[in-house]
């Protein structure tokens, strides 16, 4: 058993020498502990100072660093002017475009705002491609060292939204990737789908109302939630036109009783003029706003009637009116209608929105919207044969993807084929039907001109109509998706009415 | 049957309590009026265009108001959580979960802030309370240093301000934990822990005990008024200083200072020391500087400020000796600077 403190005290009282020794020992222990604490404190301070100096030296030798990067991998394939935003860890000096390299090559511009470097793509990028953007010579104000920023990203793969009808009357909207197999994913199914147009996160769908008219719905592709959009009673939707960005769609409307496009009796000249709207009248509907139908008026104050309409990338709406004039309307100020020209046929706008593909009695024409200059579209030879031009889709680079009619050397009959024509005198064949028995329908280039999708009826003689009152198609209608550059057929899908999207 | 007697001391406590409550009520009212006046002034001057206040004053108002608006919801949340913990959750359970191992014990104590989400000024009385309950003095330091950083409100506001950009949030949390435990370890080696303490605790902390009287509802109201009256003026003043610095100091100077690996860290630590802003809102305060200063300097600000600033030194002086505080300041300053330099190098 060890002695207690009181026993210690008694011992120290009886033996002063022991007390002094104990006191001395205690002091020594305290001094030792004090020294130990002081040493630990000094060592800690020394270590921290040393570490600080090391990292200060290392930091001083460094240039700015890339903290994070932002890019929309889908939009960058669909629109020009999309940005890669590189956030540095500190404000950086101004840069010029020569320090930016992109692999695979793409035209860019660069600007700097504080610690943000904005690399803007002046062209649409390719689908499903890994891009490497390198910015060299990035320096900070008042600092000698520079560094190189590098960022890799992969653009979204392309996919197609299309409509597949069933004999039972239940139609399906499907999404299919370019690289996939099978029919693709069913996005929405409903009775009697007439038209569909994706806009932002929803798909606007026009369906049969059972009385010759249309029901308009907004379908949330993710949740499947369906919302009814207001349309006047007894109205039929002839066209749905969606912009690449924004929430306002354009609709071409007719009274339900009016003759359908393509039927005998004409289009706008249909006798039926009763109802809430004039035949083929154009209206706007803001899905993200008040969702109220906004009819458009022409220069004469009468309802603006349209054979077709296209949203321009800058936001304007190009309208091919029923009286065959081409006008431009600003959806934000629709009372301003700008006449552009008169063309019996308008095929569409180029993917960059700068030119219009049209046709008059002399043949095809490409109209520059900025200058008003027209360029004749003269088809080049196809496999050595003279070709007669049809619908032409214009790419941003000047290439034309065009349906042309060529004579079959064996039979002497004309066949419709799809070609890529750079105007150099010889066109590349992109698609033709087996033994020229089929026909080619509407042609749609992807927003970046990488792919083209065309509706194909494989055998015209054997074709059977699906019998739908609106947008009738042969039951054998097929979509062919082709790589424009290589001419390779990538996929075929049973359906029609394709719209390009990203996966 | 028990009979509660009202002693003269208790009556005095109640009178003190009422006086405190009235003072805080007035302060809270002034703070709220100040915020409303600031927003109203900004709204008025925005409409008046160039003919209104001078550009510099308009910039000051815009920058200051943005800090206030961004941080106000989080301040209210912080106060609500603080009340929840201090009034509605029993304190005793915390003592049961501490391990016996000194390192483990300090590590757990450094996470106490997760359950006591108040800013650093509220932690001083709590740290003193821990010493009274038998915690060692180094352990009270661990809590005092870590709690303002490692608490949900600070984490929430820091994340709201910076997200996970540049590792600022992670560096702040790890830095706070590291500094607290290094300090705890260092002072656990001290042979005479009692000598680390000041002679007496400060008067500011005494009111905390006085407010423990009354029902929980009364305590809730009282704490809300008290916390609001402390935080709101600090917020407004901090916002004005933040805006003022950006208006007064030329951007070129700020950019040049902010781009330097060493001076950016030192400048931010000096700023944190001077402005003494609450850790619950300091992330919003420093956010406007994030575009001109290196991330490491922001981290140094966010780590150093909640532990060492003018206000905290004044409060801690009531509990710890001057010599202790000098040592703490030196170690925390060096650790914060090293942390900032490491972040600048790595991020």
From TrEMBL, chain A:
Key words, A-Z: Membrane, Transmembrane, Transmembrane helix
TM helices/strands, residue ranges: 37-58
Transmembrane helix among keywords: yes
Compositional bias annotation for Basic and acidic residues: 7-29
Disordered: region residues: 1-29
The name this protein goes by in its record: SbsA Ig-like domain-containing protein
Species annotation: Microcella alkalica
Taxonomic placement: Bacteria, Bacillati, Actinomycetota, Actinomycetes, Micrococcales
TrEMBL record, chain B:
Entry keyword set: Cell membrane, Membrane, Transmembrane, Transmembrane helix
Xref: InterPro entries: DUF318 (IPR005524), UPF0718 (IPR052923)
A Pfam family assignment: ArsP_1
Record-annotated membrane-spanning stretches: 21-41, 61-87, 108-128, 140-162, 169-187, 230-249, 261-277, 283-304, 325-346
Gene Ontology cellular-component terms listed: plasma membrane
Membrane topology according to the record: Multi-pass membrane protein
Localization per Swiss-Prot or TrEMBL: Cell membrane
Primary location group: membrane
Family to which the UniProt record says this protein belongs: Belongs to the UPF0718 family.
Protein name: Permease
Source organism (scientific name): Microcella alkalica
